[in-house]
């Protein structure tokens, strides 16, 4: 089934759907322990919820595929992560909540160090700090001048050695060779056109790179830029257009706010704690149909390789669950976008446990929220991109298919 | 995998396959009960069968999709419900067991009431009774005359305000605007061609609608007709052609007889009880390879919202199971086409429990036929359109793929 098929069945309803997403929720046993982070956490509220809900395991992208945050979140919201594979440039822009327009070509910049012969000696410019990054971007912005009458150039710092370059103009193309040779000891590649239609854009980028090299020539570390992940801005159909949902995103981190904005969600105030996120949900509950509540620290502590700290985050979320369940949403989904086991200190390919709580769900025998329990859940194992259809169905927002 | 792939592996065999389909079998707990209809029912025979079979859960169309009877049954017989999404006109014709030909354009008619200005005031003509419907169809048939030398017009009553209109001729097209504006207070739409190739058909329908309006002008309620769901007859490859199966349908309700006919099954006599269906199976057992036994009341009682009555139907079927198992079929499948939980009083998207009993099945640990038990079955969770391949395989009717 195509993920977009559900769009043809959408009907209006006043029901409310909450997606509580603990980033990187799924885990692994670590250091002789027998339990995953979620299994080890004391979660009486989530266990009680699992007991009266239907549970299962979600596969974010596919068997064995470790997803980045972009594909993982697109899948959660019912956007096929292959067909909607978000360009690195757009994701970088979304990640700093950059206000994109449909005339933008978005490019990820890595600052690098070259020697006097122009050979790359450090592809990350010694991982310059954020302040240096800001200074360099400003320097480029102030000295670049115009490279064309019709194209605006915008540099935005991201962090360390990473920045965003946006070209804004008509007819820009993204079929351009990346200039990062992916190893030191080589000259940067030239931003060559990969198709004839991209010649004009390639010429602009060629000039831009030369100018940038001159502007940065007095820098010790960041004296060159490498271009990657060219992506023309792409308009995604919004959740309002696809599902008739008036959606609110409650997320502290810029990337998730950016992704939510790409899908047409309203972006809530930037909360400073998990509790503040839940309070923002409650305060805005009347005004929206769909709520994306994004909990970042589960992923961050997983990335740190800190099993116990990830357990603590899960326990904190559990303690706040009554703030959500008291709202009596028609559908409450609790899951993650992917697994980030502390044992691997990175995203992983492992399936993600999910609770779908609704008056219309068919209960199973799962009594505890954990990976091993969810294997036996009534949802079985579901590609994440179908979760949205299940949520809409349980919220009585899909009509019958065929007579 | 494409549903049709199994066709390439079909080999001849003398084995027999029975599909015992309890329409709308899957359910939900209701009114404080903890069990579904099937779980609540006392089913010693089905439980014993489950104990020595392989069980699982079927998804009729896709996650979250509530199927109509057409797609749900097409999937059961191994026809991809998306690729073979049956038009409303054909389903209406199948529903009254209308003998379609490959020159037919089939159209669903709703009788409606218009005022003196031609504005629709009741889209269902006050839900006229079946007798009035028959009289009006006859009146239209007798007075319509010919609208073309090459096209025959046939009106057939369905029930209440619904009828079937068949145009029979060469080159008829179905790309025509529906005339039902889906609300009162408007004029009916014109049956306009949606593509240039449909102009001729549109002109015929235009004339037909005008004539019908004149013929019905003295009617108080049904003084207009609205046209919907234009579908050109489509020839489906038969089960004989696809699987080499000589199939018999034992079904009391016209729609299921009609669907079976579309797939080339022989249609058995119309039985008057569940027991009579099982007796018809026994009487015809020698003459066919495949048997579709359709039990309607599970769905009807579910649609009524009557949990206890649905339980009783399941128990009645259970008590008759020995009449089937005594035949020792090579494959016996017991399942439903979709769920119809009494709690929702309608079809639903929930997966459907299935038993596949065969000497060649690999048993699992399921000892009871119920939704929660089938989660743990050896078939796991299977899209319904793959059930037919599993049945053929267990009946030793599929050869090896590749060397």
Describe this structure in words.
2 copies of one chain form a homodimer. Chain A has about 400 residues and is an alpha/beta fold. Chain A folds into 2 domains: about 5-85 and about 235-395, Alkaline Phosphatase, subunit A (3-Layer(aba) Sandwich), CATH 3.40.720; about 90-230, Alpha-Beta Plaits. The first copy, chain A, has 13 helices and 13 strands. The first copy, chain A, has helices at about 35-40, 45-50, 70-75, 90-95, 130-145, 200-215, 240-245, 255-260, 275-285, 295-305, 305-325, 370-375, 385-395; strands at about 15-20, 55-60, 105-115, 120, 150-160, 160-170, 225-230, 245-250, 265, 290-295, 330-335, 350-360, 380-385. In chain A, the strands form 2 sheets. An 8-stranded mixed sheet of chain A has the order 9-8-10-1-11-12-2-13, with helices on both faces. In chain A, helix 4 crosses helix 8 (about 255-260), helix 9 packs parallel to helix 11 (about 305-325) and helix 10 packs antiparallel against helix 11 (about 305-325). The first copy, chain A, is globular. The model of chain A has no long low-confidence stretch (mean pLDDT about 95). The interface of A and B includes residues 5, 376, 399 and 400 of A.
């Amino acid at each position: 089934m195509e993920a977009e098929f559900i769009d043809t069945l959408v009907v209006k309803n006043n029901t409310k759907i909450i997606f509580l997403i603990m980033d990187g929720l799924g885990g692994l046993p670590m250091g002789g322990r027998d339990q995953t982070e979620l299994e080890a956490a004391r979660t009486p509220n989530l266990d009680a919820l699992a007991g009266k809900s239907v549970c299962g395991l979600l596969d974010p992208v596919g068997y064995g595929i470790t997803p980045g945050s972009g594909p993982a979140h697109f899948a959660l919201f019912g956007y096929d992560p292959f067909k909607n594979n978000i360009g690195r440039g757009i994701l970088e822009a979304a990640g700093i909540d950059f206000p994109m327009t449909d005339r933008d070509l978005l490019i990820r910049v890595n600052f690098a160090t070259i020697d006097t012969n122009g050979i790359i000696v450090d592809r990350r410019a010694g991982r310059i700090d954020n302040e240096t990054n800001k200074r360099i971007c400003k320097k480029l912005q102030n000295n670049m001048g115009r490279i064309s009458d019709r194209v605006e150039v915008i540099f935005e710092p991201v962090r360390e050695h990473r920045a965003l370059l946006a070209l804004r103009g008509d007819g820009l193309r993204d079929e351009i060779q990346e200039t990062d040779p992916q190893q030191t000891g080589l000259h940067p590649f030239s931003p060559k056109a990969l198709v004839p239609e991209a010649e004009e854009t390639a010429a602009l980028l060629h000039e831009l790179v030369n100018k940038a090299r001159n502007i940065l020539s007095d820098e010790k570390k960041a004296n060159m830029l490498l271009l990657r992940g060219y992506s023309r801005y792409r308009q995604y159909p919004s959740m309002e257009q696809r599902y008739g949902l008036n959606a609110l995103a409650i997320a502290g981190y810029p990337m998730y706010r950016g992704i939510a904005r790409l899908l047409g969600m309203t972006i809530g105030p930037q909360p400073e704690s998990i509790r503040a996120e839940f309070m923002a949900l409650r305060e805005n509950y009347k005004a929206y149909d769909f709520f994306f509540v994004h909990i970042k620290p589960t992923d961050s502590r997983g990335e740190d390789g800190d099993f116990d700290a990830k357990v603590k985050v899960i326990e904190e979320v559990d303690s706040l669950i009554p703030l959500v369940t008291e709202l009596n949403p028609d559908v409450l989904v609790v899951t993650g976008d992917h697994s980030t086991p502390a044992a691997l200190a990175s995203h992983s390919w492992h399936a993600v446990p999910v609770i779908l709580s609704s008056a219309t769900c068919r209960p199973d025998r799962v009594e505890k929220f954990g990976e091993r329990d969810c294997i036996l859940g009534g949802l079985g194992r579901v590609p994440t991109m179908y979760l949205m259809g299940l949520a809409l169905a349980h919220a009585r927002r899909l009509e019958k298919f065929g007579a």
